[in-house]
Design brief:
It is a single chain. The chain has an eight-stranded mixed sheet, sandwiched between helices. Among the domains are: 95 residues, Spore Coat Polysaccharide Biosynthesis Protein SpsA, Chain A, CATH 3.90.550; 104 residues, no CATH class. With 327 residues, the protein is α/β, with parallel strands linked by helices. Helix content is 52%, strand content 13%. The longest helix has 25 residues.
Length: 327
């Protein structure tokens, strides 16, 4: 296999707790071609920037730190891609560590014919609640049947976790777009990528470990933004990227209808919906490999926050999305 030059593009904001492990794993890549890491810092104030600059000084230019004044992931990724010298871009995340052959296998998947390639999302919790989140994320009853969570062999998919692609194709697609929620940039990017006739492949041999949110409040805010982001994709593209967002939407609609009926002396729908939903979330907790109470709580938060965020994004209408895309 040839070894084209690779640029790893990494947006960060206040990642002090994880940035050292992330960069150590990226610098430990066993890749025979030229490799650079471009970190777009969104104005970190927790000491992340000091650590980044220390890495930059001691790696002889392999790590480059650039400013991302817009702070969000999408402009950070685009800024890093603009400055990249590599033929191949490998997207990285500040909450993830990477197997030593991550870049090698990503480039191999592209050489084998994929236009974009990535691995599965493999969540590994950092504390007890984080382990519950990881277990919930691994269940199709929580995250749906998205193949980048469950694929056992290489296959063509609608989206992947992070991903690698040729820089020219990335620029031709227009890079990542920013939505008001600050979420859904991956799903939107790969939606436009596939609309241009390009393929997306998930290969489980491309291995990384993602650290999920480790507190209930952080998880709630994350999935609230995810739900809003899917609504914003609908306003931007005229369709959802898949049918998966409809399940949490239906849950919130059913719960809302149940509350209204209960207020008028007919609680049967609310009781039925809550019982069925609690049974489903209980099954996730009972069959997962995380602590049951934390897994139950995490799955419930994911369902509710995502559904509420989706409805909120729909009610906000298309105007905020259009303004963000025009800006």
């Amino acid at each position: 296999m040839s070894h084209p030059a690779v640029s790893i593009i990494l947006p960060v904001l206040d990642e002090r707790a994880t940035i050292d492990a992330v960069l150590a794993s990226l610098l430990d890549q066993r890749y025979d071609g030229p490799l650079e890491i471009i970190v777009a810092d969104g104005g970190s104030t927790d000491g992340t920037r000091d650590r980044l600059e220390a890495w930059q000084r001691r790696t002889d230019g392999r790590v480059r730190v650039v400013d991302n004044p817009q702070r969000r992931q999408s402009p950070g990724l685009n800024r890093a891609a603009e400055l990249a010298s590599g033929e191949i871009l490998v997207r990285a995340d500040g909450h993830t560590v990477y197997a030593p052959d991550y870049v090698e296998r990503s480039v191999a998947a592209l050489a084998a014919g994929a236009d974009a390639a990535g691995g599965r999302m493999n969540p590994v919790g950092a504390n007890r609640f984080g382990r519950g989140v990881a277990a919930a994320m691994n269940s199709p009853l929580t995250m749906g049947p998205a193949r980048f969570h469950h694929a056992e062999e290489p296959e063509t998919v609608d989206t992947v976790y992070l991903g690698a692609f040729r820089r020219d194709d990335f620029l031709a697609t227009g890079g990542f777009r920013s939505f008001p929620s600050g979420a859904a940039e991956d799903a939107d990017f790969y939606h436009r990528w596939r609309a241009a006739g390009r393929t997306v492949v998930v290969d489980p041999a491309i291995v990384s470990r993602y650290t999920p949110r480790d507190r209930p409040g952080r998880l709630w805010r994350q999935y609230l933004a995810y739900g809003r982001g899917k609504a914003e994709m609908l306003w931007a593209n005229g369709r959802f990227p898949s049918w998966r967002p409809l399940a949490p939407l239906a849950l919130i609609v059913a719960l809302g209808a149940g509350v209204v009926l209960a207020a008028f002396g007919r609680p049967w729908l609310l009781a039925a919906v809550v019982t069925a939903w609690a049974g489903l979330v209980g099954w996730v907790a009972a069959t997962g490999d995380g602590p049951p109470v934390e897994t139950f709580l995490a799955a419930a938060i994911m369902h509710l926050a995502y559904g509420i965020g989706l409805i909120g994004g729909l009610l906000r209408g298309p105007t905020p999305v259009r303004k963000a895309l025009e800006g």
